[in-house]
Design brief:
By secondary structure, this protein is of the alpha+beta class. The protein has helices spanning about 1-40, 50-70, 80-85, 100-110, 115-125, 155-175, 245, 260-275, 290-295, 300-310, 370-375, 415-425, 435-450, and strands at about 40-45, 85-90, 95-100, 130, 140-145, 150-155, 185-190, 200-205, 215-220, 275-280, 280-290, 390-395, 400-405, 410.
Length: about 450
Amino acid sequence: MEEEGRRDSVQSVVTQKGESRGSSRRRRLFWKLRQRWKLLGLFEIDKEHEFYALTCDLKEGLRDAIQDVTQSDIQPQVTDEDYSAKLTQGHEGYMMRTYAGSVFQHFRQSLGMSEEGYQRSLSACGLYLQFISNSKSKADFFLTNDKRFFLKTQSKREVHFLLHILPKYIQHFQAYPHSLLVKILGVHSITREQEKKKYFIIMQSVFFPDERIIGRYDIKGCHVSRWTEPEPEGSRGVLQVFKDMNFEGNVICLDQQRSWLLRQTELDTRFLRELNVLDYSLLVGFQPLHADEKSQNWSFANLIVRTKRSVNGTGSPTTSHCASVPGTVEEESDSVDKEDNSTDYSGTPEVTSARRLPMKKIGQQVSTVSDVSDVVAQNRRLLPNYRNPLHVMDGPEQRYFVGIIDIFTVYGLRKKLEHIWKSMRYRGQEFSTVSPYRYSERLCRWVETHTV
């Protein structure tokens, strides 16, 4: 009898575990079905979500990783060792690895971000959000609860490419502090028990803050597969990002800042072309200005604040008089020294050495600026007195959120073969997979023809 009782007890435990696993599988199946039903939008990653345990680990791991970098002595300049550094931290049930941590810490400082605020957003107790889009990308997108930062999974190849071009990426922002390129703020990987390693990047959301944005577009400058069918009006929980063909009939009204945008788009796409990169997107968001925002745009007090932010970032006031005039552009100087890098990476150009350059705060670069011509050469503009100013431009009636994302696709053999196939299939039509030169030229033309 006792033996039978023990067998029954063991069988009961096994049954309970089996039911628990079965219940977990059913929850995951239900979530995937719910994703298919809703398709698009932002969803809280709650306890029923398949990514809940992962995001909890990410919060804890990122908190400790940022804390570790913050507590270390920050050096006035970065070195070769900083670019190749890896910080590995073991946790219960998973391992977190941080790549080039001190380099990204310097970069965040150059953008005027505090490490405390960055850590707070990534590790706050509020639930992460999952962003489900109509993108063909197989990546997972997570958004911090305050919607300030995106976490996006990347392939191992994409992460290695980013780390390879990181010196040149940083140097581009030193040369052009008001660049439209997405601000990549960290690279990490997480390895959980019995799961494959996941690589992910952290980037600043272009659409932040998003409370009053009434339209979002992902622009590539072509037509094939560039239409998104709008969801029925009143669809709950749906957040759509439209494409090129949906944009037809719209225009970006910038007035004096139009020439600045044209020039900066040219500078940024030329940089990506030199990296042999294509398939990136120009994000554009629309937000109507409040009446008081329109009236304050060129008030004297607002002009002072905007000038200080434009030349000094978020730093202390400057005695310098050099502020750029909106819309004023000149050719930039080619004063950046170059040296060879022996690493060959899928046909990309050699990476310019920026590894030993001091990582000055962008706001403090005025100390190296001698006159107005130097500021204009960097294609600076009067930044709005607004959160996320580097990705925001104010026109007469609308506020525009603008940024270039997805900068990891190299025009290698696979893409060249894809170009040949699409050339035959879409003869005479504009599709995305073209040479980096053609791609950058086309996107610049799109900006020129869709702005006034």
